[in-house]
Write a structure and sequence with these properties.
heterodimer, A: alpha/beta, B: 2 domains, 74% helix
């Protein structure tokens, strides 16, 4: 009886103290977290109640979100959860095949048998996708037809979810390769097209991050070399720049977009860059002269801690509406490039072959007017550089087409 | 606010515990419980607090007036007040829960074009209406004393542990405790244990198997295969059981922490050997409510056979309707009405002659088919699902389930299957009897609590997919 009394005291104390202390600390003591780096969003913080916000329920919903976002050691809890999930995957599914997709978060999948590479779900048959490709290629063909003096190029970076490597292990029919063929076969002869198509997962590993959909520095350099080979068809004198060294952030574990979004405990990536001796250039970002990349800041360690999570985009330079590179090469060549984030590590390299290189991100630069831009700048070359989802339509769900010029 | 939320566990519950136990006075404690309960309700439904207040005031007055008439010997007026009380309660429930259902069906039946009211359902209205109705009826019957203190009656109605999802606590169960309860360390500790068991059921099992069920029920009917369909309906059966019984455990546990002793609401329903047995084990507070306030007043089984069957169908029609204002719930209720009539006529006699394992199989099969009706909102989907369960949809390989993205979650189903039997309960009872195993049990429960927090924090993980590239 006495022992039971002691037992009752212990559980009553531990439970009551635990919830009271934790709740009090979160509500009254803990300094508020402002950013959630794993989720790439602003953390919800507590707000004061008013008659309006309480009656509308806004105070309550904000309080609940804030309580979750501000929870003690939230990242630790998330990682502990993914560790449990990971363990469950490991022993619950027998006969795991190398490319079996396992869902691990919002839109992230992994292959447990394949070093935990993270990916999105394969591209499946989709009528609007097909129509989007058709409209994009039709638009680019029409533009190329009109600007006979300008060289046109299309380069599509490869992504793992357009491969058909998943098909056998997952009973899927992925349409990435079919759409890729449709994409490239739809351009007129006026347009030079290429991609960095990768045929095996082993090769993929060399060129792409494990935790991010983007190519790593070797993948982007490979893309650059392919692009130069396209330029060479009009400008044989252009030679690709060779890298003079490799710089790796040895003490930093890089978790890319998929790694952060899923909180999955995969092995991190190592973030590296290649050194080049490029000609001098100045950059104007959205019309303002400033440094586009932040390579030196990262190397010197002066970058804000938060940005380390987004090193791919911040290091090479963010997605911007317009980035203008200006060299003093006097080549007589001016390049206009429509880009998505795959272009970030390439911009300076590409610009190093032109007097001016303008990089327009159609996802951000909604008011861009092709006709006016061509009239105002002496553009000799136009390149569409991006995964086709980014270039032919708005990727943020509105299904709005990017029309580069109306005809 | 739900019990299985970080806000409840680390903000609401600590506040109510601290304030409640600091105040020594019984009536002040009731008042504190009332205030916190109103806050608990208003958290999700600020406007509907007034509806609940109206319901409480009107029923309080009805009972008082009824008692006054009784003292004056005006029996017909007493009955009149009962009718008024029941009409007020059913009127509120009918308007807020069933108005659109009636409009939709009138439009369909009479080719009308009446606009829908689109009223959002006040949380817990079915539960608190039934509770307060039982109070008015019991006052009429004289089985409980009229409560003259409005705070005490309101505390009973709004008591946050059972306000939103039951169990349906009758006034007679807590009548004494509202005035004279004594909170003890023993009850408090038991309450914590029971609460943690319920929380574990909800967060660690129900939510997880619910995820499996949701994924499978989203599969288009025609591509739903045999393995998927069976896993899906089993997952749903476990989800609904662990969700509801988990909530009841939490309610009973919280009640104990504050000195109330609510009656049990579940008794391992999936070990039932007939549907009659199942309904003695499932949502006991609702079944007994309908028995005592509808079935028996209608005459129960002490009437002609035809009338008896009619009584059964009325009760099961209402049981179905109580669960929701759609036809599938009514169909679900009537489905059990038919089975219960069959069992009363010959079924139970046959069942008693066959081995236990077959009786169990029979009951489980009918329960699972029932859950299909309960879960699928339209007849077409019900048809597809039943077809899939019987293997008529094709895609009948185990691989169909294996290929789903949630296939790795099957251990939760095993956990649920073990947890739905009496074995875990017996183990807990045994452990509870000895000090050291009891301590081990307590630390295991605290471990479950930590695990629940882990899952709840993860629920808040909400990555913003900024670009799809």
């Amino acid at each position: 009886m006495k022992n039971n009394h002691l037992r009752n005291r212990i559980i009553s104390f531990l439970f009551s103290f635990g919830i009271i202390a934790t709740g009090s600390y979160i509500l009254f003591i803990k300094p508020p977290t402002t950013r959630l780096s794993m989720e790439l969003r602003t953390a919800t913080t507590f707000i004061g109640p008013t008659i309006d916000n309480v009656s509308e329920g806004y105070f309550q919903s904000t309080f609940e979100s804030a309580f979750s976002d501000q929870f003690i050691k939230r990242t630790w809890w998330l990682k502990a959860y993914t560790f449990l999930e990971h363990t469950l995957y490991d022993w619950s599914l027998p006969n795991k095949k190398p490319m079996t997709l396992v869902w691990i978060g919002e839109d992230v999948y992994t292959f447990p048998a394949n070093e935990d590479y993270l990916t999105a779900f394969p591209v499946l048959k989709n009528a609007s996708y097909e129509e989007g490709i058709a409209r994009f290629t039709e638009n680019v063909n029409a533009i190329a037809e009109k600007y006979q003096d300008v060289h046109f190029y299309v380069f599509k970076p490869f992504r793992i979810n357009e491969s058909d490597w998943f098909d056998e292990d997952n009973d899927l029919t992925s349409y990435g390769q079919i759409y890729s063929q449709q994409f490239f076969s739809s351009f007129s002869d006026r347009i030079l097209v290429a991609d960095n198509r990768i045929d095996s997962f082993e090769t993929y590993k060399k060129y792409y991050f494990k935790t991010d959909p983007h190519w790593n520095i070797y993948g982007s350099y490979e893309g650059y070399r392919i692009l130069v080979s396209l330029f060479q068809q009009y400008y044989p004198e252009i030679e690709p720049y060779e890298y003079t060294g490799v710089y790796c952030f040895e003490d930093f574990d890089y978790y890319g977009q998929y790694g952060r979004n899923s909180a999955y405990l995969t092995e991190p990536d190592c973030f590296c860059d290649l050194n080049f001796d490029l000609p001098e250039y100045r950059t104007l970002v959205n019309g303002v002269e400033r440094q586009y990349d932040q390579k030196e800041a990262f190397k010197n360690g002066t970058i804000e801690e938060f940005y380390w999570n987004y090193i791919y985009s911040v290091y090479h330079g963010n997605d911007e509406s317009e980035v203008h590179f200006q060299t003093e090469l006097n080549t007589g060549r001016n390049l206009l490039v429509f880009v998505d984030s795959y272009s970030s590590p390439l911009k300076a390299l590409l610009a190093a072959h032109f007097d001016n290189a303008y990089f327009i991100d159609p996802r951000i630069n909604k008011d861009f007017n092709f006709r006016e831009f061509m009239a105002e700048h002496e553009i000799t070359d136009v390149l569409y550089l991006g995964f086709y989802g980014s270039l032919y339509s708005n990727a943020e769900g509105s299904n709005e087409d990017y029309v580069f010029e109306d005809y | 606010m739900i019990f299985s939320s970080l806000t409840f566990l680390f903000a609401f519950l600590p506040c109510v515990l601290v304030v409640y136990f600091i105040i020594p006075n019984r009536m002040a404690r009731n008042f504190i419980l009332l205030l916190f309960s109103l806050g608990f309700y208003a958290w999700g439904e600020p406007i509907y607090v007034f509806l609940m207040l109206f319901s409480m005031v009107s029923n309080y007055l009805v009972a008082l007036i009824m008692e006054a008439f009784r003292k004056k010997g005006k029996t017909s007026m007493v009955k009149g007040m009962l009718i008024i009380g029941v009409l007020i309660n059913l009127g509120l429930l009918g308007f807020f829960k069933y108005a659109d259902f009636f409009i939709q069906n009138s439009n369909w039946l009479l080719h009308l074009n009446l606009p829908l009211l689109n009223i959002s359902l006040p949380i817990g209205i079915s539960f608190y209406t039934f509770q307060i109705m039982s109070y008015v009826i019991d006052v009429y019957r004289g089985t409980v004393q009229v409560q003259k203190n409005f705070i005490v009656l309101s505390t009973y109605v709004t008591l946050f542990p059972q306000l939103i999802a039951g169990p349906i606590v009758r006034y007679e169960t807590v009548e004494e405790e509202l005035a004279y309860r004594k909170e003890t360390l023993n009850d408090f500790a038991y309450g914590i244990r029971r609460f943690l068991i319920g929380l574990g059921k909800k967060v660690l099992i129900s939510n997880q198997v619910g995820f499996i069920a949701d994924q499978i029920f989203q599969v288009e009917g025609s591509s739903l295969g045999l393995s998927m369909a069976w896993v899906g309906i089993l997952a749903y059966a476990f989800q609904i059981y662990f969700d509801f019984s988990g909530y009841s455990d939490m309610a009973i546990g919280l009640g104990k922490m504050f000195g109330f002793h609510f009656l049990e609401n579940f008794n391992y329903p999936y070990i039932a050997q007939s549907i009659t047995d199942f309904w003695r084990r499932w949502h006991i507070s609702l079944s007994t409510w309908f028995r005592d306030y509808v079935y028996i007043p209608l005459g129960g089984n002490r009437v002609s056979q035809a009338r008896w069957f009619l009584n059964i169908f009325i009760v099961w029609f209402l049981t179905g309707m109580w669960h929701g204002a759609t036809w599938n719930f009514i169909l679900w209720g009537l489905y059990f009405g038919v089975i219960l009539v069959f069992e009363k006529l010959i079924g139970l006699r046959i069942l008693n002659k066959i081995p236990r394992v077959f009786r169990h199989g029979y009951a489980l099969l009918l329960i699972l088919f029932g859950w299909v009706i309960f879960r699928c909102e339209d007849l077409t989907q019900i048809g597809y699902y039943l077809n899939a369960l019987l293997g008529f949809n094709g895609n009948n390989t185990l691989k169909a389930f294996y290929n789903l993205s949630i296939a790795h979650m099957w251990p939760y189903l095993v956990l649920a299957a073990i947890g739905s039997g009496p074995w875990v309960g017996k183990l807990i009872q045994k452990m509870d009897q000895r000090t050291w195993s009891g301590l081990l049990l307590d630390f295991s429960l605290l471990g479950i609590f930590v695990l629940c927090v882990l899952f709840l924090v993860n629920n808040s993980f909400n990555p913003f997919i900024y670009f799809r590239f």
